[in-house]
Amino acid sequence: MDKKYKEHRVIAFDGTNEPVAPNEDEPDYIIYTKNKENIIRAGIHVNAAYDVLNDKFLAIVTQDQRSKDERGAAMKMVKEIHEAYPGETFLFVMDRGYFSYPLCKLIESLGHKYLIRMKEREYSCLTYTELDHTEDQQISRILTHHQRKREKENPQMKYLVKKSMRQIDPESEFIDFDCRVVAIEIGDNVWEGLITNLDEAEFPPEALGFIYHLRWRIEQSFSWLKYGIGMKRIHSIKAEYIIQEIYSSLIFYNLVSEIKKCVLESSQSDNKEENQTTYEYQINTTKAIRAIRCYEASCIT
Length: 301
Hints:
By secondary structure, this protein is of the alpha/beta class. The protein is built from 9 helices and 10 strands.
């Protein structure tokens, strides 16, 4: 049974760059200097959707360096997850850089929830206040691509470029946008702005802070992927084969996670029956990876 937080599966979105050997036959994966005489770096950008409570990846989108678009990748993964898990309710958690009106409207239209950290400029543009005090408010805006005098004078109107408007609804000139915006103090006179469609009564600011903190688990999972599983050590040169190696690393990560889960459930059940331990012990992930690899090698030979 998958773990949930208040009936929601919590999915974190984030991206990481996978360094690869420069292949000048595929220049889209290379960042050059301005004069294009020298190579700064080469890599494939991996956008991932990670189930933070069940320690497994649900979807990824790979992009080259020139067409990197984390917001677009997030929208694609939201649709894929919605179609792959019918009947499930998801809470998508994202860091700064992901907020966009089309993404929020998409998640809401599919019946899911979102919690996204905002940049200070985005917060101020939406709330018309500065991010310098604790706040929890419901916001109602009307999105439009018009910049006529009557739209500019109406504080309820929020300008959005035509491209973004068409992502939400190709036909509409005015789109209602309702959300909840929360400013929480995370340090001495330091505030962070969060935008969400979670209910205020069920999810007070303290709960939002806890949920957002869960997002950091995807950072740890990237570390295990790169250094524990070995995704950092790519052998291929062509992008097509590199992406295959990335997928194999993710599949192996999910396999290790599932085996760890089964072992933990079994040991906790045995300990509970025998009443031998006071604490629930965690499995050493590095040793688990090595043990599973040795088992696979023995099966092959």
